[in-house]
Input
Amino acid sequence: MDAFYASVEWLRYPQLKGLPMVIGGGRRKEDDLIARLNAERPERAWTAHDLALIPVDFFPRLSSYVGRGVITTATYPARQFGVGSAMGLMKAARLCPQAILLPVDFDEYRRFSREFKRVIRDIAPVIEDRGVDEVYIDFTHVPGGQREGGRVLARLIQKSIFEATGLTCSIGVAPNKLLAKMASEFNKPNGISVVRESDLESLIWPLPCRKINGIGPKADARLQGHGIHTIGELAERDRTWLVQHFGKSHGAWLHDAAHGRDERPVVTESEPVSMSRETTFERDLHAVRDRAELGAIFTRLAEQVATDLQRKGYAGKTIGIKLRYDDFKTVTRDQTVAEHTSDARRIRQVAGQCLKRVPLNRCLRLLGVRVSSLAPAQDLARQHADSSPDPELPLFPTAG
DNA sequence: TCTGGGGTCCTAGGACCC
DNA sequence: TCTGGGGTCCTAGGACCC
Output
């Protein structure tokens, strides 16, 4: 999806289009726009239907932000001031104080996410979820999926998404996921790009290695250290050389990726591996001095994970914590227990055991609780019934 | 006045078992 | 007395992605 968060916001607030705008944070004080409008602009009774009428000068500015949030999305006019994704909002406020600041509204983004995915699934059912704003689609067996190299189907999907949501997207069509992901970047926004195997040299090899999904800042820096800057330069290296310098698995993958080879299937369904909740405090907290506050946050995180597990129907048997010190160093501890659980008190209890194994002499800025080794709750219920038959029940209660 | 939150996957060492 | 060869599970950290 093109500039997904910003585009969803523009559906509600079209008056903000073209302005420098930043989405991020969430701890700003003036979160409830409507309540504030009625208090400060009582000339009319504002309702949720009037969002598009809110005067631009009413929106909070980056300069008013106080907190530890980061930018999740910056619009192009804001980027011209040097602000960008992942930058701290306080720093961004120095660079572009007049930019409009909207808090993230994940519920709304998720709502549109479900909607655009539903539209795609109705046309091409084999899709793989890649987060809130992205999917892989297998065109192979969709009727008409091969016409004009996939362009016809891609156009249909774009048109259907726009009609259903008012949002635009960019689609890359290619023989595999690796190339399709890169192709989807070629023609933004609202574009379609078809990349064939024969386009490798001309379209892919000139790109920087960083454009390969899976090469991040660390791997890129290492490659650059060997004088490898483009995918073409990476493709020139012997497979054995890459394996020697980057390990058996990673080296072989780098070689394949540079040659546009990728056999991964489009995976339509998968089980979650872990669920977690974490929070960065408004100010650094000390284990002793702020014991009560930390304890309350810790309990709340455990309750939130428990609620998430129960809502989604899972239980886990590895419970862990994550904490980040004031120097930004992060540590984790986890412990596996005999029985799967989704109980808040049990999670809190085991997480508390984990906390005892970690040095607490420094101030903390973040605390998190995680549950992994998940299993669907219904499977566990069945296994439990199998292994411990209830004497009150007949031995052969049901068929199958 | 730096640096979110929720994930996945990989590696590597140690325990433990056969 | 001087070092097997799997295999699995657990734990901690880190890279990477959206």
Q: What stands out?
A: Residues 24-26, 66, 68-72, 86-88, 90-91, 93-94, 104, 106, 131, 247, 249-250, 272-280, 328, 365-366, 368, 370 of chain A lie near DNA strand B (CB under 10 Å from a C1'). Residues 393-400 of chain A have pLDDT under 50 and may be disordered.
